[in-house]
Amino acid sequence: MRSLRLAALLVLLLAVRAVAQAPQPFALRPALRDSFVAVSAPVVALNHVRVVDGTGAPPADDQTIVIANGKIQAVGRFGSTPVPAGAQVMDLTGHTVIPGLVGLHDHSYYGAAGWLSAFSPIVAPRLYLATGVTTTRTTGSRAPYEELNLSKAVERGGSIGSRMYITGPYITGGPGSTGMMVQVDTPEEARRVVRYWSEEGVTWFKAYNQISRAALGAAIDEAHKHGVKVTAHLCSVGYREAVALGIDGLEHGLMANYEYYPGKQPDQCPTNPPMDWTTVDVNSQQVQATFKDMVSHNVAMTSTLAVYECFVPNRPPLDQRILDAMFPGVRAGYLTSRVRIGEGTGSISAPAFRRAMDYEVAFVKAGGLLAAGVDPTGNGGAPPGFGDQRNYELLVEAGFPPVQAVQIMSANGAKVLGAYDRFGSVTAGKLADLVVIKGDPVARPAEIRNVTIVFKEGLGYDSQKLIQSVNGLMGVR
Asked: Cis ω on the peptide bond leading into residue 187 (within 30° of 0)?
């Protein structure tokens, strides 16, 4: 009998130990919850909202969204959609709800003209979340361990931010490789880098513009062996070559595809003379062949119009929110850069930028899967979150209907990540990742900036409090 009691005690101790070692459920640190959470009730009903659900369907007016246990429990017409007893009921007349945005080129570091790019563990995550970006893919990391640790901190409630899909270090070739990237000269070197970081927990890799076809092919093959995917900002390798090698995604649209450069040589990134993007005919047989290859191999494209717009003279319009967020030295560098670009130094012409827009519209018309991200680098004028919102305005300017622009920035991103069953649309059963916007960004695209509350897995964050908490710190924290 005694041995049975000892055995039972041992089983109990082992069970307690297993529970203690098991991953704990998300619980935001109390100080953060008190400072930034506006809605924390276990059951919430959002009444009288206009819903743009992310599927491409027309907006639905006067809707009720019921949130419970971190998920969307019901979506339907107000008065016809039951609200559970005891729910916190919010009258959001005059507001629009869209899915949480999925930023597919959303670094956790920030760079500006004349300012060293720096890891941003406070400002970037808060700005992404405050502006409606509930999921990011870092798409090129300066320091993967910093991002892996930040992602864990967010998951465990020790920090505030979007859910993160971490990309390994940039993989490139030589010569001319920048110091923060891994330079690989052989296929085996590429495989070694991919093996190591795959085991460390990254879920994507990003190849950069000097990589060779042999190294890129080896990286892709090794990544796929580990269940990891590869995207790229290319130049030395053309899009069709990358597709043939098995790549999963391509970044930046037209302005990273040098296969249209006259006299392009294999494995070389041509820079002299500069590519004239206005010569690219998006309806040409050559371009349509690119799209056909991408579509047939399920290779997505990421739009980053906001970062390229910063190199077009006198664009974008100055946004006081962005200036307020910048550290003074960063602000000075950015404003100086705008003046130089306005004078034609290092600029992209308006017609070339328009051609980049046309390229993305043509890709979607050809059946391509287009997602979006901000890429908060360049001259600093497309920062985390604010630049994602600007992407929406630019996609509409490019010619996409607003509901399709929302779809590109939410559902399509989730599909690229293989997570559309979990988030990316306002659909019952999915995680309650929702953006509450005062106004109507379908009728007036600039109202995408009027975010009031962002729900991430049912917890509603106060957008303005998050923004105010980092004002003046962009570029240093």
From this structure: no
Q: Determine phi and psi for 199, rounding to 5 degrees.
A: -70, -25
Q: How far is CA 226 from the centre of its chain?
A: 23
Q: C-alpha 74: how far from its chain's center? A: 27
- Tokens 């931010």 sit at which residue? 161
Position 66, amino acid: V
- Secondary structure (H, E, C), 273-306: CCCCHHHCCCCCHHHHHHHHHHHHCCCEEEECHH
Whole-model pTM: value is 0.93
Secondary structure (DSSP) of 423-454: SSS--TTSB--EEEEES-TTTSGGGGG-EEEE
Answer whether 77's CB lies under 8 Å from 431's CB.
no
Tens-binned pLDDT, residue by residue, of the chain (477 aa): 444 333 333 332 333 333 333 334 468 999 999 999 999 999 999 999 999 999 999 999 999 999 999 999 999 999 999 999 999 999 999 999 999 999 999 999 998 887 777 899 999 999 999 999 999 999 999 899 999 999 999 999 999 999 999 999 999 997 655 678 999 999 999 999 999 999 999 999 999 999 999 999 999 999 999 999 999 999 999 999 999 999 999 999 999 999 999 999 999 999 899 999 999 999 999 999 999 999 999 999 999 999 999 999 999 999 999 999 999 999 999 999 999 999 988 889 999 999 999 999 999 999 999 999 999 999 999 999 999 999 999 999 999 999 999 999 999 999 999 999 999 999 999 999 999 999 999 999 999 999 999 999 999 999 999 999 999 999 999
Residues 244, 299, 106, 130: what is their CA dihedral angle, to the nearest 10 degrees? 180
Map residue 268 onto helix, strand or coil: coil
DSSP string, 172-207: E-SSS--TTSEE--SHHHHHHHHHHHHHHT--EEEE
Contact 378/307 with Cβ under 8 angstroms? yes
Rounded Cα gap, residues 372 and 303, in angstroms: 4
Neighbour-count burial for 413-447, b at 16+ CB within 10 Å, e otherwise: bbbbbebbeebbbbbeebbbbbbbbbbbbbeebeb
